[in-house]
Design brief:
CATH class: Mainly Beta
CATH architecture: Beta Barrel
Number of strands: 11
Radius of gyration: 21 Å
Structural class: mainly beta
Strand content: 35-45%
Number of helices: 1
Number of domains: 1
Helix content: under 10%
Largest sheet: 7 strands, antiparallel
Distance between the termini: 39 Å
Order of helices and strands: EEEEEEEHEEEE
CATH topology: Elongation Factor Tu (Ef-tu), domain 3
């Protein structure tokens, strides 16, 4: 068995996003729905909890092992909205569709998923009404085949 050795950090070759404005979310089933993004949280990538592998043969440490499958969490965005969007939201909610997150540098994350929740926030005098829209990733296309998300980078990123 080999003991771990230190690995030096190498400067990344890519570039970082320098501003969160403008991050847009597109539902292919209704790409011009009347939702106006104001803040967005792209879906997290989660490897899940470690698998416990400790046995009575361990002598000093508990041992664990990483899982094999990746889980994509839910994303969300805060938005202004036109009340007319209600019927369009009802038409696509819980419908498996392609969803694209477009970052301000033009890079995209595209995946199969669904709009799962539209929650209007408290309306107040002197403030623009807002809503929280939540979407989930299915990783399953319209033929029920497993599909990984697709990342498209722009030159220089």
């Amino acid at each position: 068995m080999a003991a771990p050795t230190a690995t030096p950090r190498v400067t990344p070759a890519g570039d970082r996003l320098r501003d969160g404005d403008q991050t847009l979310i597109t539902f292919a089933s209704d790409s011009n729905i009347e939702l106006f993004e104001m803040a967005a949280t792209p879906p997290p990538i989660d490897g899940g909890d470690m698998i416990e592998t400790t046995t009575f043969h361990n002598s000093t440490r508990r041992t664990k092992w990483p899982r094999r499958l990746i889980e994509d969490g839910n994303g969300q965005f805060r938005c202004a909205y036109d009340p007319v969007a209600k019927t369009r939201i009802e038409a696509i909610i819980n419908t498996n569709t392609e969803i694209t997150v477009t970052f301000n540098d033009g890079s995209t994350w595209a995946f199969w998923g669904a709009l799962i929740r539209f929650t209007p926030q408290e309306a107040q005098e002197g403030q623009m009404p807002e809503a929280i829209v939540e979407f989930g990733i299915t990783n399953t296309d319209s033929a029920f085949a497993e599909q990984d998300p697709v990342v498209v980078e722009v030159a220089g990123s």
